Every structure is written in C-alpha cells, then in structure tokens.
Amino acid sequence: MESPRTQEKTRQGRLGEDFAIGYLESKGHWILFRNYRKAFGELDIISFKDEILHCSEVKFWSESSGFHPLECFHETKRNRMRKVYYYLLKEIPAFYHLTPSFNLIHITEKKEVHFYSSIF
C-alpha cells in the first residue's frame, strides 16, 4: 500500500500531466501517448506537431523548492529518455522520419505552464 505522501505525489503528477496535455493540445499538438513506460524509463507525454515527435517530461514543481526543474535533467535522466525513445522507434518504425524533441513542461503551484523545447 502506498503512503499518503506517495499518493499525493501521484495525484499531483496526474494533475500536472492533465494541465500539460491541455497546454499541448491548445498549441496544436496531437497527443499520441501518456506515460509511455518501459522497464528502464518513461516518457510522460509523447505528442506530434509539424513533423516533430515531442517527448515531454512533466514536472509539477513548487517555486519554494530552491531549484529549477531543468536541474533534474542530469545525464542519467537524458539517457533513459533517449533509450525509451529508441525503443518507441523500434515498436513504431513509421516514426523514424520525424524529428525528435525532448522537452520539459513545468507546471507551477499557480497552474502556470512553462514549456521548454529541445532541452537536450
């Protein structure tokens, strides 16, 4: 059974992803996958727009935390996201011709959305 803290983090994560999906759709993205998981990693949202396959990490982040969500994209995180992306290409070869973009979608406590495209 999950602890109350874990349950709250899961709830906030889903809420943040809901906001992110709404944002992406308002900008013309087609949402292809949500929580595309493999044993070695996950892509929170995979969307498509203008021949670009957007692989987005969503962070519901408190401004009072003392650092910016971009700081979470250390080498290990980037490598995991790439590995999941390459697995997606093996599963769906039709995506090979699309340009990949690895993004961060930062949702603030005030429900503001900050979109950082092609961060690595």
Short description:
This protein is an alpha+beta fold. It has 2 helices and 5 strands, in the order H-E-E-E-H-E-E.
Helix and strand topology:
Blueprint: H1 4-26, E1 30-38, E2 41-49, E3 52-60, H2 75-91, E4 99-107, E5 113-116
Parallel strand pairs: 3-4
Antiparallel strand pairs: 1-2, 2-3, 4-5
Please identify the top-level CATH class.
Alpha Beta
Distance between the termini: 36 Å
The number of domains is 1
Rg (CA only): 14 Å
Notes on the protein architecture:
The chain is of the alpha+beta class and 120 residues long. The protein has a single domain, classed as Trna Endonuclease, Chain: A, domain 1. It has two helices and five strands, in the order αβββαββ. It has helices at residues 4-26, 75-91, and strands at 30-38, 41-49, 52-60, 99-107, 113-116. The protein has a five-stranded mixed β-sheet with strand order 1-2-3-4-5, with helices on both faces. The protein starts with a helix and ends with a strand. The model has no long low-confidence stretch (mean pLDDT 93).
Comma- or semicolon-separated keywords:
120 residues, alpha+beta, Trna Endonuclease, Chain: A, domain 1, 2 helices, 33% helix
